[in-house]
TrEMBL record:
Any one annotated GO CC term: plasma membrane
UniProt keyword list: Membrane, Transmembrane, Transmembrane helix, Transport
Name the record gives this protein: LADA_0E09956g1_1
Membrane topology according to the record: Multi-pass membrane protein
Gene3D superfamilies: MFS general substrate transporter like domains
Residue ranges of domain Major facilitator superfamily (MFS) profile in the record: 58-523
Length: 596
């Protein structure tokens, strides 16, 4: 949990935190000292009207829906062998249901994230949970393996956007200084599904059968749907600003906002309309543009490989522990407990470390800026305007958010990879079960922290499109997990468990070193791209008047040709009349553009 004192955090929110701006638009350069802030800035509305208690409640609300996305994958693992035997299919075929789940878990948020960034968080969450609820009922009643495959796809497509949307919600209501803790806390509660899903699944399957798993999920998601529909307010800043603006659409209004305490806390009767941000056009393919940015693509690669390795080790345990160690379904479920507990600890702990490192780095950066400002004032004869311009535009004075968020994960990811290698060879050599579980937990402890770091970073970089940006992380990790799981059985039969995890962990460890690119060059890449965009916009604006004149000239010439065809005796080539006609049409077009 974030360690901030609640009163201090409330005071911190009484101003717009400059660190919440996107580095694409503002490279986090504190160009003025605190003493030079204008009175208008001091009286600015808070970044978010949600207080500490409300934020913790939002964490709980988000986790109550997000946990069903993570649990649906892991709770299914203990049932794999049971389903394989009941429907008389091969191990490769039963793994297809796992692969398809991850494929749709990656694809669906990529599309739905754009909808959440355009139309709001609340409608997407409610739709997702409702679709998941219906799919779980269908799975519990499925009679053929084909029905299971189809409904697993529907189940995954329904609930998977919730993870990305929840990250967007945290981005809407928190500043950068707080964000790491709240994102880590939300992810930690959501990861409870992965932590204890297999344990729950093993107990349910051994007591009843695999269908009971989906009845359990249907009941839980139904309760979550009711709770979320009542308690989850809209947070998208294009719709509600800092939370004080009442949404226009009825589906965006949470019943809880009608209570006097929430109306008073969020200032719904005196909204801060100036905190509304412009709404962008809907672009469902927007996430794909992030893959063209090297500093982001590298991060997505590392995150995807690390998550895929972790999922592969969970999938391998489901089959190998039962076949090689002759464990019952219930005992196999218990074997997931070390991995689950360590995963939850990893994600929540990463949030705390992210907050600590941000404060440490930002304090050093402020000291650097103050020293640089004093030196620049001496060099430029105390001309504050010139100094502010230098501090605002020179990249060397920018706060490196890439280094702040990513420098803490190198050692954990290397330790995690080493742990997975040992885990694989313990399975391959049939060593004592305790060793297998110890290294499963050890590897998980250092594995999933990269997800919290990556999620926090992309929300920092794209706060107004946080659901879209976060969906890219989800897409890369789920698609890579699907590829790894699809190839797992072939790799185990040809390379053994030791060789398989040595290869996969080696690939993951090697990719970790590519994070040096965003840490060292990320800010430069973003800065250069922004300069190119500004140059292109400037060139386009400069060319616009000439394009307009050419368009009008062509229209007038065409009219003259047509006029000569119908009235060959009339003089239509008069320069004065032609000039008047051109000016008239340009004025008309310009007026039309102004009104639109």
């Amino acid at each position: 949990m974030p360690k901030n004192d609640p009163q201090q955090e409330e005071k911190e929110q009484q101003r717009l935190d400059p660190a919440t701006a996107s580095p694409v638009e503002n490279l986090d350069r504190p160009t003025t000292s605190e003493g030079s802030k204008s009175s208008s800035e001091c009286k600015a509305p808070p970044y978010s009207r949600f207080g500490v208690r409300e934020k913790y409640l939002m964490v709980l609300i988000c986790a109550s829906s997000g946990v069903f996305s993570t649990i649906a994958g892991s709770i299914y693992y203990p049932a794999l062998n049971t389903i394989e035997n009941e429907f008389h299919i091969t191990t490769e075929m039963v793994n297809v249901s796992v692969v398809l789940y991850f494929v749709f878990q990656g694809l669906s948020p990529t599309l739905m994230g754009g909808l959440a960034d355009t139309f709001g968080r609340r409608p997407v969450v409610l739709w997702s949970v409702a679709l998941y609820f219906a799919a779980c009922i269908g799975l519990a009643c499925a009679k053929t393996y084909g029905e299971i495959l189809f409904l697993r796809c529907l189940q995954s497509a329904g609930i998977s956007p919730v993870i990305a949307v929840n990250s967007g919600i945290m981005g809407d209501i928190t500043t950068r200084e707080q964000r790491g803790g709240y994102v880590g806390l939300t992810s930690g509660f959501q990861i409870v599904g992965s932590a204890f899903g297999a344990l729950i699944g093993g107990g349910v399957v051994s007591r009843w059968d695999w269908r009971a798993i989906f009845w359990l999920l249907a009941i839980g998601s139904g309760v979550s749907l009711i709770f979320t529909s009542i308690m989850l307010p809209e947070t998208k800043r294009t719709i509600v600003g800092n939370g004080s603006v009442r949404p226009l659409a009825i589906w965006s209004r949470a019943p809880i906002l009608a209570t006097p305490s929430w109306r008073r806390k969020l200032h719904l009767d005196a909204p801060d309309y100036d905190t509304l941000v412009p709404r962008d056009k809907l672009n469902l393919l927007a996430p794909l543009t992030l893959y063209t940015r090297p500093e982001i693509a590298v991060l997505l690669l590392v995150t995807g490989l690390q998550f895929a390795l972790w999922v592969t080790h969970l999938t391998a345990m489901a089959s190998l522990l039962e076949k090689d160690y002759h464990l019952s379904v219930a005992k196999v479920g218990l074997c997931y407990l070390p991995s689950g507990l360590c995963t939850m600890t990893s994600v929540v702990g990463a949030g705390r470390v992210l907050n600590w490192n941000y404060k440490r780095r930002y304090a050093k950066h402020k000291q650097f800026i103050e020293t640089s400002r004093a030196q620049l004032l001496q060099q430029h004869e105390n001309n504050e305007e010139i100094v502010d311009d230098i501090l605002s535009n020179e990249l060397e004075y920018a706060f490196n958010i890439f280094r702040t968020r990513l420098e803490i994960i190198f050692i954990p990811l290397i330790l995690s990879g080493a742990g997975f290698i040992i885990f694989g060879w313990c399975l391959s050599k049939h060593l004592h079960l305790a060793l297998v579980l110890v290294f499963s937990g050890f590897s998980s402890l250092f594995s999933n922290c990269v997800i919290a770091c990556a999620t926090t970073l992309v929300v920092d970089l794209y706060p107004q499109k946080s659901s879209t940006a976060t969906s890219c992380i989800n897409f890369s990790r789920c698609i890579m997990a699907a590829v790894f799981v699809a190839a797992l059985n072939k790799m185990l039969s040809s390379m053994t468990a030791g060789g398989t995890f040595t290869f996969l962990a080696g690939l993951t460890i090697s990719s970790t070193f590519t994070l040096v690119i965003p840490v060292k060059k990320g800010m430069r890449m973003m800065h250069d791209r922004k300069l190119r965009q500004l140059a292109e916009e400037k060139a386009a604006n400069a060319a616009a008047p000439q394009d307009l004149e050419d368009q009008v000239n062509n229209e007038v010439e065409q009219d003259e040709i047509e006029n000569e065809a119908y009235h060959p005796q009339e003089d239509t080539s008069s320069e004065s009349s032609r000039g008047v006609e051109i000016l008239r049409r340009m004025s008309t077009i310009h007026s039309a553009h102004m009104t639109t």
